[in-house]
UniProtKB/TrEMBL annotation:
<keyword id="KW-0413">Isomerase</keyword>
<dbReference type="Pfam" id="PF00342">
    <property type="entry name" value="PGI"/>
</dbReference>
<dbReference type="GO" id="GO:0006094">
    <property type="term" value="P:gluconeogenesis"/>
</dbReference>
<dbReference type="GO" id="GO:0004347">
    <property type="term" value="F:glucose-6-phosphate isomerase activity"/>
</dbReference>
<dbReference type="GO" id="GO:0097367">
    <property type="term" value="F:carbohydrate derivative binding"/>
</dbReference>
<comment type="pathway">
    <text>Carbohydrate degradation; glycolysis; D-glyceraldehyde 3-phosphate and glycerone phosphate from D-glucose: step 2/4.</text>
</comment>
<comment type="function">
    <text>Transaldolase is important for the balance of metabolites in the pentose-phosphate pathway.</text>
</comment>
<dbReference type="InterPro" id="IPR018225">
    <property type="entry name" value="Transaldolase_AS"/>
</dbReference>
<keyword id="KW-0570">Pentose shunt</keyword>
<dbReference type="InterPro" id="IPR001585">
    <property type="entry name" value="TAL/FSA"/>
</dbReference>
<comment type="similarity">
    <text>Belongs to the transaldolase family. Type 2 subfamily.</text>
</comment>
<keyword id="KW-0704">Schiff base</keyword>
<comment type="similarity">
    <text>Belongs to the GPI family.</text>
</comment>
<dbReference type="InterPro" id="IPR046348">
    <property type="entry name" value="SIS_dom_sf"/>
</dbReference>
<protein>
    <recommendedName>
        <fullName>Transaldolase</fullName>
        <ecNumber>2.2.1.2</ecNumber>
    </recommendedName>
</protein>
<comment type="pathway">
    <text>Carbohydrate degradation; pentose phosphate pathway; D-glyceraldehyde 3-phosphate and beta-D-fructose 6-phosphate from D-ribose 5-phosphate and D-xylulose 5-phosphate (non-oxidative stage): step 2/3.</text>
</comment>
<dbReference type="InterPro" id="IPR004732">
    <property type="entry name" value="Transaldolase_2"/>
</dbReference>
Amino acid sequence: MNALNALFAEHEQAVWLDFVARGFIAKGELQALVEKDDLRGVTSNPAIFEKAIGHSAEYDDSLKAVLSQGDARVIDLYEGLAIADIQAAADVLRRVYDTSDGADGYVSLEVSPYLALDTEETLNEARRLHAAVGRDNLMVKVPATPAGLPAIRQLTAEGISVNITLLFSQSVYEEVANAFIDGLTEFGAKGGDVSKVASVASFFISRIDSLVDKKLDEVGGYEDLKGKVAIANAKLAYQRYKRIFAGPKWAALEAKGAKAQRLLWASTGTKNKAYSDVLYVEELIGKNTVNTMPPATMDAFRDHGRVRATLEENIGEAETVMARLAEAGIDIEAVARQLVEEGVQLFVDAADALLGAVAGKRAALLDHRLDAQTFKFDEPLQAATDKAVESWRASGAIRRLWAHDATVWTGRDEDKWLGWLRIVEDELERVDLYESFAEEVRAEGFTDAVVLGMGGSSLGPEVISATYGHREGFPKLRILDSTDPDEVRAVEAAVNLETTLFIVASKSGSTLEPNVFRDYFLGRMKDVVGADKAGRHFVAVTDPGSAMEKAAKDDNFRKIFLGVPQIGGRYSVLSAFGLVPAAAAGVEIREFLDSARMMVRSCGPAVPPAVNPGVRLGAAMGVAAKDFGRDKITVIASPGIGTFGTWAEQLIAESTGKEGVGIIPVEGEPVGVPAVYGEDRLFVYLRLTSQADARQDEAVKILESEAQPVVRIDLDKVEQLPQEFFRFEIATAVAGAVLGINPFDQPDVEASKIETKKLFASAEETGALPAETPIFEDETVALYADAANAEALRPGEGFEAIVAAHLARVKPCDYVAVLAYVERNEAHHAALQEARLTVRDARQVATCLEFGPRFLHSTGQAYKGGPASGVFLQITADPSADLPIPGRKLGFKTAIAAQARGDFAVLSERKRRALRIHLKGGDVSGGVKRVAAAIKAAVAG
């Protein structure tokens, strides 16, 4: 008989092993310990699993088997591995359980340490794990935190065996013991068999000496107490155990066959090399207790441990030790509270490392199915980003974000706008709805589907249309998000109304543009197919109870799809607002959502920030803008996914640009040589492997070599683009938190809407918009500015001189935005794009080219509410001809003019550097060319 055997045989102290690993069980090593050393139980914790899973390849085949069939959440992958190990260990120990009549033979599995401060979540997790393992000889580990105590009582009352962990205090131990007795009493009163419930109270040893010894060093003069306090504390806890389980409450339970909750000595590996490596085993040997040892301590005790009944020796000396500790000014209860807090954090740290390891293995096994992300930053930016990422880990911010905790941001109403976090899973449950709609559209023979919407209702569908293309048998997907009469006419001219389906998309149902679009095309459809059939050519996507829903019912629309009110427009692309147009265009919705879900899982609450792609990107965006002045995020994208930036710019600008801070997205600006950039850029390169542009690759490589910060995201195929929608949504929410703003409101967009509504309403009453006085006018242009801007522009010197004076106001790290309220066509875009790039190259500043009014629901928020570093050149025009809107007094000409003037009024009110150029006479193309020429001349030389 060796020393380990003797502990139970001679002193009724059970030896448990504080270790578990797959190969250890599979190779029979656990069984060998049971047979040779009379091992009677196993404990586990996140640190143990982190070592087993994170630092070996033993689990890789199991992970590979799961991921070869699809995908899974990181937490589910971990739990699948852990539960299999716990079940296997429990099966090995089943004979011990049976022969001891359920006193021993247990394996312990810990509830997530993330839940240590939440009673209800601890209960739910404990119940779930108990059911998932499905073994009688499982103990669920629950920490002895204030939130854990009621959970211990309730779980015991439900007949679940519990291992209470992180006990350091004698008084808290009493609370734990009484919680067990009270819970078991309740269980018995409900008819439960109390003999089938067991429990251990894990009292930690070595950590007490580690902390107390440090405190004694600080105090000085009490050297003789070092290495003695932990043992004294444990011995006195055992005396309390004896009193509690000799009382009348316990006697009644014992008479029914109940088993006393045993004290389990945990943390018995010696941490101080000056102490014996078996100190915390030899000095705590006593009847009806457990000592759970790490493998090294077991080996040491087997080799040279001395076995004798020590637990009740020198109790008076133990009391003296504790009294002298108090005399030294060290409060053992305060020590215990500190150790509980540190213990929870240590387990959280271990859980983070464990889940990070699983996440890393998942990403590696998914390989090209998961879009990859890499960072090329200089050391200061990388270090600052890493610090922010670690701060998110230490504060549990990603878990709090997923738990809808508004304090991640400003603590206002952010929690009410997080429906997008789970929308992918929710929509996967409704795939049949979208698939049946797609089949209906195909069967009807529609040739075109036109989305009538703005901002989040149109930009996502636009990217889907451009990326997925025209699918055989399905209508061509088009977007109308401009009130410019020429653009409305162009869309109508491009389709056959008799075979066109209109998708009217508006969350609130009160947005001006979708309503006038609906009014116009519904009127035209009635003209073409008749009033009784017109509604069959329309589908509405709107939030429940909106004015749009009512109007759609009144007009007998073919279908009404309802959105989620807790999702803002710019976060809605993975909801009905993106899926209805995608389904109409023949995009395979299940595949689309499955791809998105892969990134949802990669960015989930159980994925630590260091390996969470959304958190890492968001931290980089926020830190670069806030701490390094790199607040111009410049999107570069391969052909095939080139329109992604038009969606991302709304998400980023509208979410972050407010309260005088923010990130200005730069989209559609071709990558240039390093010399044309200042030090205010952060580049994001979305590279599509199948359509990579060698020139882009080389240009980005040169930027990296010149220390420009670059985030590179690699997509294997276009069908993986849905992953990027979710990555950027999480990243933007994280960036908002770093910047200290609410990323879900848009106060300055609302200000522009209010101004526009006032102007349009006034025009409908009077027949025209209010008259204006230009600061300059000639035959083809009229220029407008508020008094402050006019003073800086030398208005008497002519058109080109005024434009030059305006652009002369541009300073380093500013940006120039051309805001064109004209038809968005190739000719206009080409002329203004050339001018824009001339400004960039000459002044080394970021440039933006936007077409109104669509940008009002996109970057307009950042332009008005973000940093005051923009120089704005607004272009408006007399259209070639107006277009009446059925049921309204005025046409599209007045609508777009009201929007432009409302926009300009708010820019001026926000004291932005803004100049408006109005093109007269209806020759819009000629006017655009003249403006472009003036811009280029202004920065020449």
